[in-house]
Structures are given as C-alpha cells and as structure tokens.
Amino acid sequence: MGEGVIDLRSDTVTRPSREMREAMARADVGDDVYGEDPTARALEERMISLTGKEAALFVPSGTMGNQLALLASTRRGDEIVIGEGAHMSFYESGAAPALSGVQFAVAGQGGLFDAAACAGAIKPDAYYHPRTSLVAIENTHNRAGGRVFPQADVLAIAELARARGLALHCDGARAWNASVRTGLSMRELLAPFDTASVCFSKGLGAPVGSMLVGDRDRLRISHRHRKMLGAGMRQVGVLAAAALFALDHNLPRLAEDHARARRLAARLSTLPGVDVPTPETNRVMAPTRPGEADCAVAAARAEGVLVSAFSPSTIRLVVHLDIDDDAVERAAVVLSRALTTPG
Questions:
Q1: Are 237 and 315 part of one and the same domain?
Q2: Is the pTM of this model over 0.90?
C-alpha cells in the first residue's frame, strides 16, 4: 500500500515489526517433522500453559486448525451445529464438507445462540437423520461484528453437548480479544471445549500461524492429518518465534484496539442519520446510504482509507496494532465524507 494509507479492511493486514523480524531471525530451529524444532516446541508448551489443554499443535492457519478439529471429532455424513454466519461455513472454501464430509445445522441468529437454540438444531437419533456429532462456537464472531460469545451460554451449551455425547469446538481465532474484553483468562474461556483453534496473525500481529489445542488423543489424530494436508513444516521455528514475540509484546495491547474502535464508532455516530453500534472488540460496523456500501468504500479509498463492504448497506472497519490515535482521527474525517456524500 502507498505511504500514508490507513488500512482498516482487517486485522490480518498487519506487518511484522522490526523487533518481531529480529526475533524471527534469531530463532533456534530444527526439523519439525522430526519433532526437533525447539522454538515450535516452546510455543506449543506456552499454549498448553495458557489454555490448560493437554496438547497443542502449530498450524499455518485458523482454517486448518478448524478443519483438523472436525477431522478428529466427526465422521463423514455427520452434521455439526454452528452459529449463523460462522467462519467455517462462510470463509473456509467449503473445506468442512470437502474434507470431513460434514454438513451444517445453524442455531440462533446473528452468530450467537443459547443452549435452547442448540438443542433445537440437534437431529433426533434416527437412521434417516444425519448424526449430530459436534457443536462449534466462534468467539469472537467475525460476521457478527466481533461480538463476544457470552460465557454463560458457552457453559450451558457445553453441558448440553456433554449430555448428548457431542464434541465441542471453539473457533477462537480472536479469542484473545474475547479474553481482553471479558477479563477471563484463555484457560477460563476455553475450559469447556474439547478443541480450540486460536490465531496469531490477526490482532496479535504475527505474519503466519495458529494453534490447535485440545486433548492428547484428538491432537494425535490432528498431527497425522496436518501431515496429510501438506503442513508438515520443517524449520518452522522462524514463524513460531513471531508468535512467541506476539504473546509477549502484542497481547497486552489489544485493549487499545478496542478503545480506538469505540472512539471511531462514536465519531461516526455523530453524523446525521448514521447509527453505529458500539463495538465490543476491534470491529466497527457502519451503515451507509441504502445500497451504497461499495460507493463508500471507493470514496474512502480515493482519500487513502481502506475499508470493506460487509453488505450492500454496511461497511466494516477493523482496528489493529498498525492503527494509532492519529490514524483513527484521519479515518473518521474521511469516512464522515464517504458515509454522507451520495454515491
């Protein structure tokens, strides 16, 4: 992107800092397929400690983490319960049906659901129904605007899942944001889940990488499937080092992203006819004139601010570690024009 461009399209656009690159260059490495990369082992041990799970597996992406979890807990022909607009159904290229042979049953509306809605989505035990085998919760929920899944609902859904003999998976790509927002530790947030996938390359700012955590038996299966899917990585410590740096330096500052997102939303809500919901984490969902989201995106881009059209009448703005207070102020000025000038 050109100099001075403010990129609010996603928190995936961050670039590793000079200090993170130096940590990557210094990484002690080995052949991870042989289990001999000390930095990858250190990262996995760190995640076991942070999440309280028995085992951890470094993977290239959150999508792979989710798919490995499905492969470990489902059989072909099964059905999994998800929230409306879940990442696994919208943004993973149809991987779940293609790789695991599963289909989706949607519970609730707007991405979140409670135990009653979950129970309503579970198929009866009959040979002519698909077998419901897993419930997947996304926290925070991307398409819901970075909303945090209420922990009370998570616990109630987990109790239901245990009673029905179902596995429970957390797509926790941005669970770090949920932890900061709620004050709950990652160990507390993820305690109800059999497996969870968490990402280093979004709010934490690493260039690549996610971690699948869970019990030893499932992670042993996932290790084999990771190799089958072509992710038997070699000197992966250079990437694991970036993730370790992110945990040490970028995790504590996520609250700054949340505060800046609230500030940006508040500024835009002062515009006539523009009502921006107060963001829970780092994502701002701003309404445009009916059907003019693409026009607003183009107008903002022309002034050096990059945003995404989320729907025909909504744009999405995502605050991240490369966005400081000055960038928020400049973006607010540009977006004020983009949202109020007819396309």
A1: no
A2: yes
Amino acid at site 303: E
pLDDT given at position 342: 75
- pLDDT, one tens digit per residue, over 39-87 is 999 999 999 999 999 999 999 999 999 999 999 999 999 999 999 999 9
Co-location of 80 and 201 in the same domain: yes
Residues 219, 222, 227, 229, Cα dihedral to 10°: -160
Indicate whether 295 and 196 sit together in one domain: no
Query: CA-to-CA distance for 163 and 119, rounded, in angstroms?
Result: 11
Pairing status of strand 132-138 against strand 167-172? parallel
Among 249, 273, 292, identify where a domain stops: 249
Q: If you search the block for the tokens 């879940």, which residue do you land on?
A: 86
Identity at 23, one-letter amino acid code: A
Q: Is the pLDDT of residue 3 over 90?
A: no
Question: Does one domain contain both 62 and 134?
Answer: yes
Same domain flag for 243 and 294: no
> Using CA atoms in the order 325, 329, 335, 336, what is the torsion angle rounded to 10 degrees?
150
As a whole number of angstroms, the distance between CA 22 and CA 73 comes to 39
Q: Which domain holds residue 326?
A: 253-340
Q: Is 219 helix (H, G, I), strand (E, B) or coil?
A: helix
Burial class (CB in 10 A: 0-12, 13-18, 19+), 325: exposed
How far is Cα 174 from Cα 188, in angstroms, rounded to an integer?
A: 15
* 5 lies in some domain: no
The answer on pLDDT for 2 being more than 60 is no
Instruction: Please indicate, yes or no, whether residues 239 and 260 belong to a single structural domain of this protein.
Output: no
User: What's the structural domain count of the chain?
Assistant: 2
